[in-house]
Design brief:
The chain is mainly beta and about 70 residues long. The radius of gyration is 11 Å and the shape is globular. It starts with a strand and ends in an 11-residue tail after the last helix.
Length: about 70
């Protein structure tokens, strides 16, 4: 898989799923399940690219709910 660096994120007590699983994509953020709650990701830097907003990264393709980071 491709390495992704995460920038501009925040914790949330909401959300359920397997840790590392993208559980929601909404507007300018995506939510990834943690062992407790979730993390809302606002900006990323895919390998070999500059920083992107989450919406730009999703529009570029290959990102959808159900995908699991670290697998």
């Amino acid at each position: 898989g491709e390495e992704i660096k995460i920038f501009d994120s925040r914790l949330s007590v909401d959300g359920s799923g397997s840790p590392g699983e993208i559980i929601e994509i909404s507007g300018d953020q995506l939510s990834v399940a943690c062992s407790e709650g979730s993390i809302q990701i606002l900006r990323v830097r895919p390998q070999g690219q500059g920083k992107l907003s989450t919406s730009e990264w999703v529009e570029a393709g290959g990102v959808e709910t159900g995908i699991r980071f670290g697998s």
